[in-house]
Amino acid sequence: MTTLTGRIRENIVLYGALAANLGIGVAKFIAAGITGSSSMLTEGVHSCVDSGNQILLLYGQHRSRRSPDTAHPFGYGRELYFWAFVVAILIFAIGAGVSIYEGWRHIVEPEPLTSPLVNYIVLGISVLLEGSSWTIAVREFSASKGDTGWWQAIRESKDPAGFIVLFEDSAALAGLVIAAVGVWASHYYDNPALDGIASIAIGCILALVAVLLARESKGLLIGERTDPATIARIRDIVAAYPGIAAVNHVRTIHTAPDAVFVAISADFDDAVTMGDGERIIEALEAKLHDELPTLSSIYIRPERREDAFVATAAPA
Description:
By secondary structure, the chain is mainly α. It folds into two domains: 2-222, Alpha-lytic protease prodomain-like (Up-down Bundle); 228-313, Alpha-Beta Plaits (2-Layer Sandwich). 71% of the residues lie in helices and 10% in strands. The chain has helices at 2-10, 12-35, 38-64, 79-108, 117-145, 150-156, 160-188, 193-222, 228-239, 274-291, 305-313, and strands at residues 244-256, 259-268, 295-302. The chain has a three-stranded mixed beta sheet, sandwiched between helices. Helix 2 (12-35) packs antiparallel against helix 5 (117-145) and helix 5 (117-145) packs antiparallel against helix 7 (160-188). The longest helix is centred in the first third of the chain and has 30 residues, at 79-108. 40% of the residues are buried. This is Cation transporter. Residues 227-303 form the Cation efflux protein cytoplasmic domain.
């Protein structure tokens, strides 16, 4: 029970966004059916895509928690990055694609206008629900980023669930504003085509968000180093240990949002024997694990400093 409660708290951003999008999506489709609004239909599709995205991210998190095995000795953490990339593709293909198509269709074949009251009511409710989800996402991401700037924190984040929901909710709020303007303008100027233009604008926003998410997810999927502060701390710990003459290099890669593989090349003092070297490596691994719990796999290679630089400079 405690584990379940902890996971719900851990994924509060995803659960909050999922609950909001499911309710909003149903309301938008009902409003679109009553009024024939293109931008409302587009917003309904947008909410459904977002709901599916949250389910995929929750599924990805579940799969990424599997323990290492023979086939995957470093675990399944990066499976979350795969599903994050799938989410970006879905936003582009379904969210943006359907929005732009529906907008173009309503410009070419405009439908008769009906009372916009239902649309305004649904949009108002949607802003409240989406705003609540957005507030949760902003609060959680702000707490995790510390003093780092927002854009830098997004670029350096290794947990796609946080910044994907933040991007989605921001795009959703912008889409709601555009949809409201489109509904108002189409009735004020008695021109249904303006509602279609609003739908295309929403699609363009979704396409832009999808491209940004795909770029960030691709970097995580390929493999990104951990933050420079952690790398510097690893180097300092190893360099300060008795028997280590120099640290040649520290190479890291995230195998999950909270798991890092590190490979260290260190030059040992010439007086250190093979047995002493083994004990030093064991002690260093324990010390690194204690001070930096995110280091899930640590490999320390004894290597003369000059040999390490020659190997680094040699062509692949």
